[in-house]
Specification:
123 residues
Length: 123
């Protein structure tokens, strides 16, 4: 059974328990602006990854397709098909990069709104 006991004693015990719980864990206050900055950083990383992969697949696909076109490699072999597949895979990667670029623009707009001076609306 639980008894309430002395009020002053339970307050000190509660303070001790709170100190023990908070001393082992570090909590940081996250402001909305820092969340937006983190999101922009993640989106920029994704944009960089998709842009780099689109560039690599596009160049290799173009190289294999050109080599197949000038008969440097066999036109009926898998390498010629591989060039076309790489070129086809480039377009979705470019679209994803463009999507992340739009998302970064949205986050930049939200950061500008968050940093804008507060206007009095009741004039």
């Amino acid at each position: 059974m639980c008894s309430l006991g002395d009020g002053a004693k339970s307050v000190t015990e509660e303070a001790e328990m709170r100190e023990i719980a908070l001393s082992r864990h570090s909590f940081e206050m996250v402001s909305p602006e820092s969340q937006l900055l983190r999101r922009r950083r993640r989106l920029a990383l994704a944009l960089t990854a998709f842009t780099a992969s689109a560039l690599v697949t596009g160049l290799f696909g173009l190289g294999f397709a050109t080599a197949s076109l000038i008969h440097a490699i066999s036109s009926s072999g898998r390498t010629a098909i591989f060039g076309n597949v790489l070129l086809a895979a480039t377009f979705p990667l470019v679209f994803l990069a463009a999507h992340y670029l739009d998302k970064i623009d949205e986050v930049n707009s939200a950061i500008r709104v968050a940093n804008a001076p507060k206007l009095e609306r009741d004039r």
